[in-house]
Design goal:
By secondary structure, the chain is mostly helical. 74% of the residues lie in helices and 0% in strands.
Length: 297
Amino acid sequence: MKNGVAGAAAAMFLVGTLAGVSGLIQDYPVYGGQAVRYLVAALIWLVVIRVLGLRFVRLTARETLLLAGLTLLGLVLFNMCVIESARDSGPALVGTVLGTVPLALALLGGRPAPRLLVGALVVVGGATLATGLGSGSLTGLLWALGAFVGEVSFSMLAIPLLPKLGAVRLSAYSTVLAVPMLAAIGLVKEGPGMLRAPTAGQGLGLVYLATVVTVVAFFLWYSALPKLGPGRAGLFAGLIPVGAIVTGLVLGIAVPSSYDLLGAGLVIAGILIGQSRAGRRARPGAERVSVPAHTPQ
């Protein structure tokens, strides 16, 4: 994972498995489940930090606001909007809107090379095709747009913090901060019943979401982001529906259609276009984030 490509690809693929695995906990209180997921992930991160011997890093007022914004928008708001959009209009609408994230990150990352833009457009087309253009209401669309803002914020607000915190601390700090936020939403939306003892299947699902989708995927993404920059890294967001398709097939939930497979192929083609040598030569290192060599990752 020297250049971050493998890490970014793995991170977004793992995030895509969330949709299929979430089926294991569909009867568990939704927001209570999210609070438990992030609580377990936070405990894991605290152990990791202790084992690695990383010291606490004091943030400035601006950095604290950035971290709070990242957590509120990129973690809490994102999860809330995905849940509510899917409830209102089904998963297709929010999946299609999130399919445009690669293009947004390419544009927000500076002046992208032509090949990067072409690759982002191909990825958007593939993600849209793989997800499916379903029908939805205005309310569902607004929730989906909120999820879009959250997904973009998850990367863009992290960039100023990574040089000081590194991937481990940033993942840990944001995860810990998300727990009380999600717990508060759970109390409002679901009341005291937001927490209960999970069944064996629900417990396995919550552990997977906490360890693989939250801890591992967060670390891989924040490790890759400074190396690739938001434009190139954003291309891999197109792998989210691919991860969902593969997970559905493995768990026996759904068999991919020809449109799913064609969309997945377009996503991969777009990533290859955007990551091509010609695209990198256009603006060598223009999007990379400077991270000090001593920063623990």
